RNA helicase (Drosophila busckii), 509 residues
Amino acid sequence: MLDEAHERTVNADVLFGIVKEAQQERRKQKLSKLKLIITSATMDIDHFGQYFNVKGMYLEGRTHPVRIMHAKQTQDDYIHAALVTLFDIHRNEPINHDVLIFLTGQEEIEALAQQIRQLARINNSGPSDVRVFTLYAQLSQGKQLECFMPVPANTRKIVLATNIAETSITIPGIRCVIDCGFVKQKSFNASSGLDLLKTVRISQAQAWQRSGRAGRDAPGKCYRTYTKQAMTAFPSATQPEILRANLTSTVLQLLALGIDCYSFDFIDAPEQQGVVSAYKTLEKLGGIKSVTVPCITTTGRWLAQFPLEPRYAKLLLTAPSFGCMDEMLSLVAAMNSDNVFIGHADKSELASLAHAKFQSKHGDHLTLLKVFATFQKIEKTKIWCHDNFLNIRNLTYARNVRNQLQEIATRLNLAVNSCGDNLDAVKKCLISGLFENIAMLQKEGHYLTLSGRQKARIHPSSVLHGKYKPPCILFTELVQTEQNYLRQVTEISIEWIEEVVPSIKITHK
């Protein structure tokens, strides 16, 4: 049984193809039938029906009715529109009707939460009150759980959330939903070779998912900060991840199973440019012989052993030769966890001071390594994380990932050595896997990525932001908002690039 089919993650799409192939293979061998049940609240049932050659079945849900209200005019500032709508609800709706507001990310959520609290203190002259809670992936587990707890009598619960609250979870008491109509979505640009994090319009299916959150416990209302006409221009369904994701990991895993991406029966086949881009990256990583002959190599099979993106797996394969396997196991594990730093709106100065203790002059990767290395030595981790505004859940997850990666490294007979204070070894090793994520400083003050020639600046969250600008940097991802930002940045030497990856030629000016 495959549930939440509408989410259309890459892994889900690969699984659909594999189970379909398994069904066909069992028929050929005249074995007992493999029965599949695929379910979702908002799936495109005709599309799935054609793919599996079956008829779908609709089951009537038991949710309560939700009254939908759209903005009469287009709103230039959806955050302000949400704020005005919230206080209109607060004036006119019963105090026990809690509110869920959908926004795009942590910064928006924390800023609006602070604004609501301030306005509530100024305007609140009666017995009623509001309690504001936030819900997003980077929030500590304890803080996430707070929004599920009951609030005192004569108090309205207001939850500000990302699309983490769209499906799967139900927050008790929610009777009103305010939908901003936007979401942050990660997409891969095959021509530039970079992952982009952009704010985009939600799909109509997502809009209905969001409105449904108001009708879980009782009849509710959904206030949309966009017009009814604007919604008709929204895509009907969320674009499948496989059509916008970096396919390098997927292509490698399929090759390890003896499956060529070109011949695999996807429910929605990825664009050829994306597949070619994945093959090119795998060729540079040594995972396949060539783009024209995409046969998996011994290195490719080793890369496929790690449950990681191939570029991160490459870091672990090359780390012993740089003498920094111990450090790279920790760093890769931490990079594959969610953000370990916790921002605090009311204690921002204290949080900044606590985080400053771990800052490395070399950049964000070595700062993250320092945080995780210290966490590994601490006994009372809960108190330490609380005092240092660090996410214990994400750090504990990283520790578990590290243990798993070390087991695989041991099985592959990879030497677990340490570079000690020789941090240049860690930075050189980073180039071996993240060579497509290098940017050079330009005379105008911005950076230009070597891959894709994208103009960008260092993200404000970086330890290097607002300080000395290194001539050459390596980054983890490019974020596209009102301008391009490079996130998780580390200074590297230009001379190291050709030394570590001879195929990359740098023109010295």
Observations:
- Residues 498 and 506 are 7 Å apart (CA to CA).
- The longest strand covers residues 472-480.
- The chain has three domains: 5-59+241-277, 66-232, 306-509.
